Amino acid sequence: MDFSDEFPTIPTRYAFDEDSDEEDLAEVVDKLVLDTIKVDLATEKSMNGYTILYGNYGPGEVFLKASFSTGTKVGSIQLKDKIIASVIASSNNSTDLAIISEEKIPDELVFAVTVALFQQLPCTEVILFDSYLASNYITPNRQERETVPIVKYLRSSLGRKSSQLDMLSAPNLTTGISAAIMTYCELHQLPCVALFTLQESSLGKALITDETTAAFTTALEDLEVACPSLDYGNLRSILRGRKFGKDSGRIDADHHRMYT
């Protein structure tokens, strides 16, 4: 085949210029949002917008539950008839909303959930609370071993800058709902900072500890982000409740010993 020959027909990607792929995608997402995802808010919306603190399932969710223990539940995000996140209003600031994941959001729905969230909640800034596993972290120095507690961060173009925190360096990436929210904020020119606490694992399961969870507090102070004080007693109570749950590191029916 002579690659210098001209195409016999117009390439497919240019043949339908009148059709907008972005519009088609938007229609699909809007239909998905209407059919499966619902954001309920039982309070009058702030005309000035909210500061949204989003706790991803894991240490981020545990941290916000312990910090907003005196807050008021004012809404939820539902996937069909199942609540996947709770919306908690701060008792100190009426424009601070904590969105706390109740479970991991499926990857195929993270963009639709993000669109539904921001359609219903006018926002001035977003702070994300997430984690990264030490076993999955890639560093140029093979001998380097990070120890807890450490918090790294990523920011949108307009997000707050830190003088103390290290960036989550390439090629390490954020995924799931955190990636979807950061992308949305970048596209819509919203300030956004994502905090990632180092999380250890045991027997293939992530370990959520008070030390790694409380590390978010120092990061928030450095970024000068106002947040309700962490209730350490409540934090330990939440972690005790998970000790033998599906998120614990103990051996259960899904893990088999390699010896007898």
From TrEMBL:
The keyword Chaperone applies. One of its GO terms (biological process) is proteasome core complex assembly. The keyword Cytoplasm does not apply. Keywords: Chaperone. GO terms for molecular function: proteasome binding. GO terms for cellular component: endoplasmic reticulum. Belongs to the PSMG1 family. PANTHER family: PROTEASOME ASSEMBLY CHAPERONE 1 (PTHR15069:SF1). This is Proteasome assembly chaperone 1. It comes from Umbelopsis vinacea.
